[in-house]
Every structure is written in C-alpha cells, then in structure tokens.
Design goal:
Pfam families: MMS19_C, MMS19_N. Its main location: nucleus. Strand 1 and strand 2 form a beta hairpin. This protein is an all-alpha fold. Helices cover about 70% and strands about 0% of the residues. Strands 1-2 form a two-stranded antiparallel ribbon.
C-alpha cells in the first residue's frame, strides 16, 4: 500500500493542514489522520516526504512552514515509535538544514527536539547527527529574538543534547561561552584545583586553560595572582612535602598545569611585539620575578665549584637527598621556563633576558675550550676542554638550556610563517647576546665527553654526547632570518661538526648524532626557501666525504663515509645523483682492478668491500626515496656488466671469501638498480646483455671459472628484477644457461641466485598460446619452457655431457642432485605464484623423490628423475631436500626469502597448491611401508606450516588424519622437531574450531595418546609447551567423551610438572587445573 499514490482523502487532509484559512480543528484532524495511517504502517515517513515535495520546496513561505511543521509534529507524535537508523539520519540532516530557514524555524525546532528525545530502544540519532543539529542551531538560531514558546523549545533542545549526547556539546565550551562567567568560574576552578582527587585536578586545569583563553586578557589580569599561586602548587614538588619525600611526581597533572600556564601566557602576550608590555603583563611578571628562579640559581651555584676541576657533591645520605631535591628543582624550573619561553615573543624575551645572563655567569668559567701544543687540531678546533667533568647537575642544567632553545626555535618557526605579523625581532635579542656562551657550552660538554670516554661509565658518556649534540643542533637550526648565531659562529659550529664527522667515527654514538644534527641544521634553511651557510657547508662536507672515500683515509672508514653521505643527501635529488655518480665511478675502477690484484696490501682490495657494501646498504636505499634519474641506475648496472664481461678468464683472488662478499654486494646493487628502472630502460638492458651472455656462457659445464660465476650472477640478478612485460631474446638459451649455472659446482651464492632467476623467468613467461616468448624465431610457450626444465637436458650439460652422476665423486654428485632439487623448488614456486597448472608436474617429481618410487611421473619426467635418483647412502638426504622443496613452494612470499622482483601473483596460490597436494599424498601413503612414511609426513609438515588456518579448517576432514599420524611419525628424531611444532600448531587451530573440535572428539583416544607422549619430547621445549596447551584445550570438548581420560591425563602430567624448563612447568600447571575441574 505504501507504494501506491495517495488517495483523494489523503490530499484533503494534507491540504487541510497546510491551508491557514481553515479552522485549527480541521488542521489538527488532518494531522491526526495522517499520523494514524503512519502508525498502522500504511504509509512511511519517507513516502510522505516524497509526496509533499512541492509543499516543502514551495516559494510560498507560509505553505513551506506548514509542511515542515507537519513533519515536526508527526515526529513528536512518534517519539516512541521504532524507526530505522537511516531514516533518523536523513531526517536529522533535513531538520538541520531547515533551521537555516527562519520561516520554517518553529517546525524545524519541534522536529529536531523530537529526534533528540528518542530513547535507545526505539532508535536514536548518532553523535555526528547530533553535532550537525547543534552546529546548525548555533549558527542560525538567535534565541533572544524568538517568541517565548520557541525559546522554551531551544532550552529543551540544549538540555537533551547535554544529557543524551555529552560528546556533541562539551561543558567547557559552555563554561567559556562568555566572559560574564569569569567572576564565578575562575574562583570555582581554582578551588576545585585544591582537591585531593587526581581527576578533579585534571578537569580543573583543562577547564581553566580553556576558559581563561576565552574570557580575554583583562579577566586574566584580574585573577593572575590567584592563578599563578594555584599553578605553583602543582608545578613544584617542594610545595608537596609528602610527594617530595616518598612519592613520584604526578606527571599527568604536572604537564596539564604547564599547558594551562602556557595558555594563560599566550593570552596576555597577545600579538604584541613591544617588549615594554612586560610592565603591564602581571602574570608574566609573576613568573619571571618569582623566587623559584632564585632557587634555581642557588641549586646550581651550591653544587658547582667555579674551577676547572669537578662537581662537588656530598656523598652522605643527607647529601644524596639534597642532590635529588636540587635535580628535581632544576628539572621542574626548566620545564616551566621552557613552556613560558615558547608561549609568545614577549614571554620569550622576558624569560631569556632574566635567565641566561645569570646562568652563564655561573657556567662561563668552565666552558672555555683550550688547546695545547701537543694536541692534534683539526681546522682550528682543539680536542681538549677545561670544563669540569659533567655529572647529573651539570647535564641537567644543560638539558634545561637545550629545552629552552628548542622551545624558542619552535616559536621562531611560527613567527616566520606568520610573514610580517611581528615586525620587530628584538625578542630574540637575549639569545643573540649570549650566543657565544650557548655555542661554547655545548661544544665544551661534547669535547669533555670525548676526552673522558675511556674512564667513565658508558651511559653517562652517551648522555653527555646526547646533550651536547642536541644542543648544537638546536642552536644551529633556527630559521636563517631569525638566527641567533653570527657568520663567524656558524663557521665555528660547522667546523666542529665537520671535525667530529671526519675524525671521530670510533665514537659511534657521538658520530651518528653529529651526522643527523648536520642534516637537520642544513635542511632548516630549505623549509623557508633559503639557501645559505647550511647548504654551502653540506656541499663542502659531502665533497670532503667523497674525497675521504677516494683517498681511502684510515681516519674515516668507507662505510662511515657512505652512511654519512646517505644521511646528508636525504631529500636532495641533485646532490644525491652527483654523489652516486662519483661512487659509481670509484666502484667501477676498483672492480676493474679487483681480479688482477695478487697482493692484499693494495687499497683497492680493502676499499671495494666497504664501498660495495655501503652502496648497497646506504646509498641505493636513499636513492629510492627521492626522484632519482633512472639513467643513473641504468648506467651503474650497464657499466658493472661491461666490466664483468671483460674479466680475464684466469682472474683469481688470494682470499676467495673477499671475492664472494664483493660478488654478493655487486649482485645486490645490480638487482636494486634494475628493479627500479622503468620498462624502456629494462628493455634496452636486455637487448644489450642477452647476446653477450649467451655467447660467453656457451661453454658452461661442471665447475665454473671466476668470470663465469660473475656473468651468471649478474645476469640472474637482472632477470630477477625484470618487469613481466619485458621481452627476453633467445629465451630458450637463457633458460638452459641459467639452469646449468644453478647446479654448477662452483659458488653457492650464484647457484642460489640462478635458481631464483629460473623461478622468476617461468613466473613472468607469457602465459597463453597466443602470446609466446620468441627465441630465435621459434615460439616457445610456457608449457614448452616447463618441458625444457623437466626433461633435464641442462643436467647433462652440468655433468660435462655425461649420462649420469657416476662420473662424479659421491660428495659432488650429491651436491649436484641437491642443487637440482633446489632449482626445481624455485621453478615450482614461480609457477605456483602465477597459478599455473604446470606446478603439479614439478610437485609430482619432487614427491616421487620423497617417496623414492616412480609411480607419480610420466615419460618426460623420467629422464630428470633418473639423474636425481638416489643410491642407498643418498636416500635420506635427497628425500629431505625434496620435502623441503615442496614446503618452499607452499610458503608465502614474505617468509620464502624471495627477493625484490616484479612477480606475476595470482591470489590464493598457496591454498590451491596445498589442496592439490592432499590427494597425491594420500595415494603415496597408502602404498608406502611404515618405515617409508616418516619422510612423507615430514613433507606434509613442510606443506602445512605456512598455510592459512582458515584453509586448513576448511579441509579439516582430510587434514586431520595426516596431523595425527605426523605427530607419531615425526617424534622419532630430533631433526623433525621444527616440523613437529608446526603440526602441533595446526592441531591447536583445529581444536578451537567448532567443526574441528567435533572431529577431534571422535578420535579423542588417539589425540590424547599422542599428546601424552609429546609432553615428554626431549628435543624441543616448544613441542612440550604446545602439547600441554593442546592437552588443556581438550577439556572444552563434550564432557561425556573427555571425562573418561581424566585420570589418565592427570597421571601423565606428573613428569611435566617437574620439567627442567619453567615455561613448561607453568603450562603443565594450567593444564592440570583445567583437567582437575572435570568432576562427576
């Protein structure tokens, strides 16, 4: 009925209501008739609104107002009728919009009030809709201009909001609505602040800070003394004797009081930049002239002897208490001064003018740095300080100075961004007047830490350097337009930081902080589009670092130089590009000489290792974060390839470990470079290198030479990083060469990366019969590429064209077979990830090796299987390797160790592969003898270890028998302990699942028996813990099935309660408690 047009009687009632010429009784009758129809669900409110469209949007204000009033009164009539949340939301938005129409205000108020009056059990508007109604009311309703009835509606409207929607309207906004409340609210809040309840204190501080900022500076001035005295009670421990002696500070209340103080200071300072305003600023006067500042100076002068010796601190118990109180006073005062200094320029001037002259009068005798004739200097910077050795008092004072400087720096940033709001910058004058003392204080503390670092506790030294470098960073990173340092002081600061960077890398903590401080100081200019001293210094330091690398300086290791370069070049694409080009040239020069050098004393051998490592670990990751020109990356990859291509055939290195390490670093560099190249660059690279690679590796067999190792490694790295759209010329030859290189008997690192390249190659191979990889004019499909791998012709190449492994020594034959299996695992992984059915061929071949029977393979696989077939001594090793390869195929990409590569990934590939393997496993298990099944269950454990739990639970009926038998089979040897843990985790997931628990309850006897034996498993603590966990979970199964095992389980837990490992004993106790609760 709701979907039908309104009847003529409805039109009569509707017209009667909106017609103001009719008597009010007729209008009420029309409204009640409509309400009755809605109450009987014969008509919905949305339907009614749709039919009233012309009335609600009419240009006739009276008719429009009557229509909205009808809706408002209907909602008031149905305040207890349940409605859907969507309807409530739409009508809340409708009435919020109608509050803007003063003609319709009466009806909109009634409708809004009706919505807010609703109770939860019939549906209410949410907080967002309530906020929208409130916002519209505040912006559009002038309460004082309304008639009395509407004013009453407004009062009730706000009452409903406060009671029903406390998040929509907060009480502190109400309290701060007008300064007329100040006379009553400020004394009330200050009185509440004296409460012993923490929440009361926090509320009063939050309200006080907010309300005072709304009342204005005049009201604050009238109550400044009372506010400051109340805040002092919360800011200083000395006012709270019981806290000072026995309790820690309430940090939350303390910081809330600081925020309140800052809000008050901001308000009184306003936007004035006239420093004389301090005389009229009562609260700021109270703060800077308060006796607590004198206490601050007394604490410092009382503990520092003005000599170049040490800090004198009493060692008695009373002295320790005095020192603790002094430190507390200094810290609290420092935080208060910091908050005051960054509140406004006026307060900054007042605080720094009051504090710094007196403070540096105390510190100045100890911040003089002196050099001596026998001490080495670097660019005029001495390495000795006459500063008394830092202790807690001195470090705390310098931390206070640093905090104040950082606060003023933040204020300076804000001031500069206002662009001219403050025309006078004399507020920063006290800092500029004391800049020499500031700079030398932090340099002195840093140098003092350097000269005493071998004799004093490392934690204290680290704190010393943190204070010193952080202070230098704060002093030097002001916006250039508001800098507190002169040009000469900047030069001195930069010279000191450069001295630390270039000559003190052995002090790792100091060096790292210094490099980062240089970056912050130099980039401070860039935030304000100003290129000045910082940029010049950074360019100079980068040039010095590159020179250090070029000259191979003993004072600064190459890795440190490259790490510093990566930090300093962050965010600067141009300077990073230039640095990368220079380092690339150095690497290429070293690599040319690398294989020709017979003596390890040459600097090239020493430099190429850290140079390649630094490029890989620091420079290239930094390049990825900026808009680096791909030509630089492509050029690096191509140049390295050409160098390797021209390696001498007989090139050797005295220490082969250096060769392998440099090789691995270079492979990583090439892979990252190619990975981040765009498609045209990668296409050019393939055209450039495929031909030379195929020709140069045509002789690959058996054991590879040095050049062959590098060629295969480089080419494999490039193949791994290619995009799927890149065409690879002569793909069949490439695949053949990579397979042969993957199983060569020369270099394990190259074997691994070549196997990975084969997996990536088949993964990105064109997948359908129309789009095929073209090799020498012959179309090669993915199926044909897979046949090339499975037929195993590349194995005969690796065996010097022999027909079997009999020509090899037994150890080498086993290594060859293991390499082949690993290659098959990577190839299967590539196929599985792309969701290709060909993975089943490789999986069946591997499963045949696990089973050591040839029943699962067809004719095309038997050739490779014949090569890989183990003799009696190799059987366990080959079967285990094949089981590991199956597990590798099933792993997710994150845990499989697969490198950066643009893989073709099909969703749910793990699940599909796992499910496809269950049927073959069932078949081979049925046909296996008992002693042969252990390795098959090991393969199952590898398969299931990485599969998502929801997939396992979906297949729980098929998986559960495997799980039970695996628990028995794998407990026989220590080598299977990890796999056993994986199976137990699967069992625990099954036990907590509803369907899985039902399945376990039908085999409870077998489950309990296996878990009882595993709680004494001697090879793994994890297995014992997980077994006890599963055993405790069993009590949640149906009582009638579990209770008969109660006595048996409790008896078996006796040994577990005496387990040597505490974690096992605790789990045994929990398990025993769970089973003891089972009673008749």
């Amino acid at each position: 009925m709701d979907g039908t047009p309104l009847s003529s009687s409805w039109l009569v009632h509707l017209r009667a209501y909106v017609n103001t010429d009719l008597p009010s009784s007729h209008q009420i009758e029309g409204r009640d008739a409509i309400a009755e129809l809605i109450s009987k669900n014969a008509l919905s409110l949305p339907r009614l609104v749709s039919e009233m469209g012309d009335i609600l949007t009419s240009t006739d204000a009276v008719m429009r107002a009557r229509g909205i009033l009808l809706l408002g009164e209907l909602w008031m009539h149905f305040v207890a009728k349940p409605f859907d949340a969507t309807i409530l939301h739409h009508f809340a938005a409708f009435f919020a919009a109608r509050l803007e129409d003063w003609h319709s205000l009466h009806g909109a108020l009634i409708g809004s009030l009706a919505l807010l009056k609703r109770e939860k059990h019939v549906g209410v508007v949410d907080n967002d809709d309530a906020k929208a109604l409130l916002k519209s009311a505040l912006e559009n309703v002038e309460v004082q201009a309304l008639v009395q009835e509407d004013r009453m509606f407004c009062l009730e409207f706000f009452e409903c909001l406060l009671v029903g929607y406390p998040e929509a309207i907060s009480s502190h906004h109400c309290l701060g609505a007008t300064n007329l409340f100040a006379e009553f609210s400020i004394p009330f809040l200050l009185d509440k602040l004296s409460s012993s309840l923490k929440n009361a204190k926090l509320d009063s501080l939050k309200f006080l800070g907010f309300c005072v900022s709304r009342y204005g500076a005049e009201e604050l001035r009238n109550h400044s003394t009372a506010i400051w005295m109340a805040l002092k009670q919360e800011l200083f421990s000395s006012y709270k004797v019981e806290e000072a002696i026995s309790k820690e500070r309430d940090n939350q209340t303390f910081h809330e009081a600081l925020n309140c103080l800052q809000a008050c200071l901001k308000l009184q300072a306003g936007n004035k930049d006239d420093m004389l305003s301090l005389e009229r600023n009562s609260l700021l006067e109270l703060v800077v002239e308060d006796p607590f500042i004198n206490d601050f100076f007394d604490c410092i002068s009382g503990h520092l002897i003005q000599t170049s010796a040490r800090v004198t601190v009493c060692s008695t118990g009373n002295g320790d208490i005095a020192l603790e109180r002094a430190l507390t006073t200094i810290k609290e005062t420092g935080l208060i001064l910091t908050m005051a200094a960054k509140a406004s320029p006026a307060s900054c001037f007042a605080v720094t003018h009051r504090i710094f002259p007196n403070l540096f009068n105390l510190l100045r005798p100890g911040i003089c740095i002196k050099g001596s004739d026998d001490e080495k200097k670097f660019e005029g910077i001495p390495v000795k300080s006459s500063l008394w050795f830092p202790d807690d008092v001195l470090l705390t004072v310098l931390e206070v100075i640093r905090l104040i400087i950082e606060g003023v720096k933040g204020l300076a940033d804000s001031v500069l961004k206002l662009q001219g709001t403050y025309s006078d910058v004399k507020w920063i004058g006290p800092l500029q007047l004391n800049s020499e003392d500031l700079l030398m204080s932090f340099i002195a503390i840093t140098v003092s830490g350097l000269q005493n670092r071998m004799d004093i506790d490392a934690i204290l030294i680290d704190r010393t350097w943190n204070v010193g470098v952080a202070g230098l960073q704060a002093v030097g990173s002001f916006p250039p337009q508001l800098s507190i340092l002169s040009r000469v002081q900047y030069d001195y600061l930069f010279s000191f930081l450069k001295y630390i960077t270039l000559s003190k890398s052995e002090a790792t903590s100091l060096w790292n902080r210094t490099v980062d401080a240089i970056r912050v100081i130099c980039t401070a200019e860039e935030h304000f589009s100003c290129q000045g001293l910082g940029s010049m210094f950074r360019d100079s330091l980068i040039a010095s670092l590159l020179k250090e690398v070029d000259n191979y300086s003993e004072s600064l290791p190459v890795l440190c130089s490259l790490k510093a370069l990566s930090v300093l070049c962050t965010g600067g694409a141009e300077i990073l590009t230039n640095s990368t080009r220079k380092l690339t040239e150095l690497l290429c020069e070293d690599l040319k000489k690398f294989v020709r050098i017979a003596s390890e004393e040459d600097n090239t051998v020493k430099r190429i290792l850290p140079l390649s490592q630094g490029l890989l670990d620091y420079i290239l990751p930094c390049c990825m974060k900026v808009d680096m020109d791909v030509e630089v990356l492509l050029g690096l990859a191509v140049n390295l390839w050409h160098i390797v291509e021209n390696f001498p055939e007989d090139g050797l290195l005295k220490d082969s470990r250096d060769n392998i390490q440099v090789l691995q670093n270079c492979l990583g560099i090439v892979q990252i470079c190619v990975f981040h190249c765009d498609a045209p660059s990668q296409r050019y690279l393939m055209l450039e290198i495929v031909g030379p690679f195929v020709e140069a590796t045509s002789h690959i067999f058996g054991s590879l030479g040095l050049k062959d190792i590098w060629l295969i490694g480089f080419f494999s790295s490039m193949i791994i990083s290619l995009r799927p759209s890149i065409h690879i010329p002569r793909a069949e030859c490439v695949l053949h060469r990579l397979c042969a290189g993957a199983v060569s008997l020369s270099c394990g690192s190259v074997n691994l990366i070549a196997s990975e390249a084969v997996g990536c190659l088949v993964n990105k191979w064109q997948s359908n019969g129309v789009e095929m990889q073209v090799s020498n004019g012959i179309s090669l499909s993915i199926a044909e590429a897979l046949d090339l791998i499975i037929k195993g012709e590349w194995v005969s190449t690796a065996l010097c064209n022999q027909t079997g492994t009999a020509c090899l020594e037994p150890e080498k034959a086993l290594v060859l077979k293991m390499g082949c299996i690993k290659l098959l695992g990577y190839a299967g992984k590539g196929l599985a990830i792309r969701g290709h059915i060909g993975v089943s061929d490789i999986a069946m071949l591997l499963l045949s090796l696990v089973h050591c029977k040839k029943i699962l393979v067809d004719a095309k696989q038997k050739n490779l299987l014949q090569f890989l077939w183990p003799n009696d001594e190799e059987r366990l090793s080959i079967a285990s390797a094949a089981a590991d390869a199956l597990g590798f195929i099933a792993k997710d990409l994150g845990s499989s160790g697969w490198r950066q590569s643009h893989l073709v990934i099909k969703p749910l590939h793990q699940q599909r592969f796992f499910v496809s393997m269950l049927a073959p496993l069932e078949l081979v298990l049925k046909e296996s003898e008992e002693q042969e099944r252990i390795i098959l269950y090991y393969a199952f454990a590898n398969l299931i270890s990485s599969i998502p739990a929801n997939v396992i639970l979906m297949e729980s009926k098929r998986v559960f028998p495997f799980v039970l038998e695996s628990l028995s089979a794998l407990s026989s040897a220590e080598m299977f302990s990890t796999s056993l843990s994986s199976v137990l985790l699967v069992l625990s997931a099954i036990l907590v699942d509803k369907n899985g628990a039902e399945l376990a309850s039908r085999h409870l006897s077998a489950v309990v028996g296996r878990l009882q034996s595993l709680i004494q498993y001697q090879y793994s603590v994890t297995v014992r813990e997980t077994s006890l966990l599963c055993l405790g979970t069993l009590v949640a199964l149906p009582y009638a099935r579990v209770f008969p095992f109660r006595t048996q389980v409790l008896k078996s837990l006796t040994n577990a309660l005496d387990d040597p490992k505490r974690s096992v004993r605790k789990e045994a106790v929990r398990c025993r408690r769970a089973w003891e609760l089972l009673t008749r």
